[in-house]
Amino acid sequence: MVSQDTDAVTGPNSGREWVRILAHYREPSPQRSIVELLVTLGPFALLMALAWWSLSISYALAAFISTLNGAFLVRTFVIQHDCGHGSFFRNRRGNDWTGRVLGVFTMTPYDVWRKKHSIHHASAGNLDRRGIGDVKTLTVAEYRDRSRAGRIGYWLYRHPLFLFGFVPAYLFFLENRVPVGSMQSGSSWLSVMATNAALATLLGAAIWLAGIVPVVVTVLPTALVGATVGVWMFYVQHQFEETSWDRSPDWDLHDAALEGSSHYVLPPVLAWFTANIGIHHVHHLYNRIPFYRLSEVIRDHHALAGAQRLTLRQSLDCARRHLWDENSRKLLSFAEARRA
After folding, report:
1. How many other CB atoms are there within 10 angstroms of residue 299's CB atom?
2. C-alpha–C-alpha distance, residues 30 and 89, integer Å
3. Of 317, 310, 320, 303, residue with least CA distance to 17
4. Bridge partners, residue 279, by sequence
5. To 10 degrees, the CA torsion angle through 142, 325, 331, 230?
6. Tens digit of pLDDT for each residue in 173-209?
């Protein structure tokens, strides 16, 4: 359950009013952005080199180092994410080309992902606009109206082993390579093929120099950790008990951003590696704020610091919540839905 400090939650009454306040935090610092890029990519490259060096000692050691490097890959992805929102640098060209280069390391075609993610921001919490850039979520009524096979299929889809085991690998290794639904425009095709070509060149050269097994040992653990953590973060940012979903007539973009996005309160080290993306309610309210300024917002506005708080322990409960109940306005587990 998301907790709210009722003494702290005082401020503007609507998400729209918060937007005007948050506009003061939108300006990025070019110098700070470059530093954040260096302290992310520098250690990422260093750990990758260390993993390759350790192959001569032990493949297990190399795999362990590569697993740790997954944390820096997560941070790389969040920087790419900021580029997609135009918030990392002041000019679009700088954002786009930085995002495209980082997309090779994150195995995510930048232009395709940016389009999907913009749809997510424009429709998050809208029951009539589900399906693109979000985790598939049914209402209790929709689930009950499905056939037995349909209910079993949804149960399997929402099972943690599938959602956080199979789905990350599928998204990053397969769907991102041939995202058929996004191939309708020339720019999407170019984004996917250019990313694939760059990946093939880098991996092909590594395999030619060292062989396929060393490449798998040093690359696969990093990619799997980054993908799995990324899917988990995206999940808990919107899939919590007291999130917000509404039909189009009652849906408001800004209120849905504030009420339907969590404030994932992580220990400082984890907050650094995830680049403050846990402050997700603020990000959805104003996505042009650079990630390194989100903590300023929380520091300056106790109302936002106390809203939609979700601790690390509380977040584990999110994995068992699967169905939106339009009557109680809560995300329920399958067992709770049967008792409802």
Report:
1. 10
2. 6
3. 303
4. 263
5. 40
6. 998 888 666 556 677 888 899 999 999 999 999 999 9
Q: How many CB atoms lie within 10 A of CB 227?
A: 26
Paired tokens of 89: 């640098």
The partner residues of 309 in beta bridges, in order of sequence, read 3, 263
Integer-rounded Cα Rg, in Å, for the chain is: 20
Q: Which of 221, 254, 243, 253 minimizes the C-alpha distance to 315?
A: 243
Summarize pLDDT for 31-67 with one digit per residue, the tens: 999 999 999 999 999 999 999 999 999 999 999 999 9
Q: How many CB atoms lie within 10 A of CB 285?
A: 23
- 86: alpha, beta or left? (left if phi > 0; alpha if psi -120 to 50): left
What is the amino acid identity at position 24? H
Q: At what angle do helices 110-123 and 186-210 cross, to 10 degrees?
A: 130
28 contacts 294 by C-beta, under 8 angstroms: no
* Cα atoms in the 13 Å half-sphere on the side-chain side of 185: 7
Q: Identity (one letter) of the amino acid at 333?
A: S
- CA–CA dist 39, 296 (Å, integer): 20
